[in-house]
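Readers of this paper often ask what the protein records in our data store actually look like. The remainder of this section carries one protein's record, kept here as part of the documentation.

:::
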Amino acid sequence: MQHREEGELHVFHYNQKVQNTCAWTPELLLARGLIFRRNARTKETTLVATPWPKFFNLQEDGYELEELAEMAKGGRVEVTTKMDGSLGLVFHDGKQWRVSEGHRKARLMEFRMLGEDGVRGKAGAKLKDRLKDNRYDGIDAEIMFPNKGLAMWATPDPIFAMAQCKVWNEWAWEEFGSHNNTVSPMAAIATGDLEGAMKEIERVAALGFRGLTLPCKPIWGAHDVEHDNYNLPVFDPMWALIEETGLPITFHVSTGRDPRASKGNGGAVINYVTHSLSPTIEPLANLCSSGVLERFPKIHFALIEAGIGWVPWVLDAMDEAYKKHHFWVRPKLQGLPSDYFRSNGAASFQEDEAGLLLAEKYDLWNNFLWANDYPHHEGTWPHSAAAIERTMSHMNDEQRAKILGLNAKRIFKFDLPDYPNRQSGTAD
């Protein structure tokens, strides 16, 4: 029997010889990470963790089913199903919560019961964790964005913003590029530095990035008529390059100017969460109303995490303005602004019943993308299945399949099967 001490804790486990020779005794069957606490002052010994006794899969120890059946008649065996035999114990040692893997050295650890909020705050930075959490939530593939890194655009200095974008791109590709078909980071581009942006677009396209993420407006700050915006021809060389690469564009919420400094009562957080969605309207209107998508029809874009309930209203508002102000609207388009969103645009959401109820009326089944927003508090992970049922119970299988995965597969060119009972998503 193996015995090790870690402070006041004594951990017992059978040794490899017992495992190899099947020299089991009733005592050894119980010694599979058995833990006692011995008070250093009083010498009082207390049992603090009792694992499941060692037991065997069918035929693991050479027994056939018939032999086990005979042994069972005498009450000598109990038939139980186990997954893989892994041992993990959560226990309180009298002072704090700990986790033990029983037989492994250095795996008796302090453990703080974080709760779901705590887990969310620590999730997602490592590939293995994202893959595990995606499997748990039923996700086949995700597109991924910076978290606090969205603030890389929150500077009026476009050169500095571009330098920060390159740091994100290099880290993201190094960390996740090996699994780009399942965990796919979006390459960040600071479009205020047009020359630097085009060089970086060429670089990330060559690396294999699946898409780009651009700020909602090229230069951070309040609206300034002197700032170039995406509706102007100065960006045509960039659009041409993006079209050539075939990479879709994303515009993430909170990459415009929004009230992050909201203070005090009056719903500061609510004001931020709702108002921060509105800057995504700007790139939508610029691309759909300025002729960009007529000149570069192979460009596809998606608005990320801003919801979808407002999209039908914006499409109506753009079309109404185009029709009623036809004397001075420029340029004259071949279609209505809303036509270009339907053919080239998309928007993601977590839970947005209003948008889903209007999807059929506005012919937007091909334009909406469900996301779990892993691991954020406003997201649906790890309860996405329940959230989907809450908001999509009125939809048929074809509609669900498009919104839960097929639209994302098409836009971001994922190599995934077209089965309707799984989902792809976006995350931060």
